[in-house]
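INTERNAL AUDIT FORM
Audit reference: QA-55
Scope: verify that the stored structure record matches its stored sequence.
Auditor: D.O.
Record contents follow.
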Amino acid sequence: MEASKYAPIKSGVSNMDFLRGLGKALVALTVSALILIPAFLTFYPHPTPADVQPKIISGNELAVIFGSARKSVTALQLVELSEDGRAILSKRLQFKAEDYPFVHYQITNRHPGTVIYLIWQTADKPGEIKNTRLYWSGDKVTSINMDKFEEWSGNITELGLDIYGDLREEPLFVESLTVEPYSWGAVTSTILSEWTAFHGWDQTSINHLGGTPQNPVLSPTMAGAAWSGLALLLLIIPYIFTKNHNVIAYSVAIFIPWVGLDLLWQGELDTQLKETKHLFAGKTQHEKHLAETDSKLYSYAQHLKDEVLPKPGARIFLLHNSRGHNYTRLRTQFHLLPHNIYNYGSLPQTQHTRPGDFILALGKIPGLGFNPKLSALTWGKNNSLTVTQIDQTPVGTLYQLKDD
């Protein structure tokens, strides 16, 4: 017998080769992180350190302007919103905004459906409330970079929270608000908060991490690319001339940052799944529409269909101050079906209208006016239609064309 007939078949990659490549990639990624993190923090734009200390506001120090709350030793327990679904908590204090570019907040027992804004006033514009949204990221301390807001300037005289939405029959615990000067810890905390904050699911979320706040400290995608890119460079340089490249190590150096980004995306998806289940599970289609974020459009369309418009088949020209495909106008059109909706433009198209048609103006439309004395809808230079105002709400106004 020929010995070669029974010779073992050589595998392309042995377990040892894989482990060796994995080890090299992990070392390269570690070195890459140790280089990039200090470099980023060192060159991150920051003011000259001032001799200031963080200011910590315990929850029980906040005055309750709207809503109902109880105070404990350190926290404020918000148990009920006002009749219009709002709570305002604030504290008067004095500090220079430029000395404190970071704000940390800890609000526990909060769910993604509760909308919270940080509010403040300045000495140069008393009575003018400025705000920015505070995104949900669990019960941990969350940070926000205030230096990116032009309104965060001058002498701050009041700081607080403006809370909207539904507490879902559970109290909200405001543990603390802290303003902090520049530090590496504050920058790092803000980056992690931005990456893990829940911003809500939209039509593009399936493809990428969406909803990132404007002017983030650092994009997770850019951070992942830099981390992987430098690690690849560290792996490739020693073998440029020998051409003894380790494909496994290169692949792992790309794969691990990629998985990290995917885990952030998956965290956003998991939170949205829980929120969607809470809002819609076990409800009828009507109840689901009422639970949506745009429920006011559904309620308005139902009001028109049930109480104002004739039976399905009416011709409705829908006007909105937007160009092209706009969510508000398209969603309203959907809810008004099966009526005949002509959803184009922001001004009436007289060449297509006829007596008996309806014109629905959503919101305020610049240049479009209604003269009740003349029963005329007017716009531009001498353009008008003789109409009757049928219905008016904060969402929209409905007119019906009459014979001239």
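Auditor finding: record pair retrieved intact. The mean pLDDT is 88.
Action required: none
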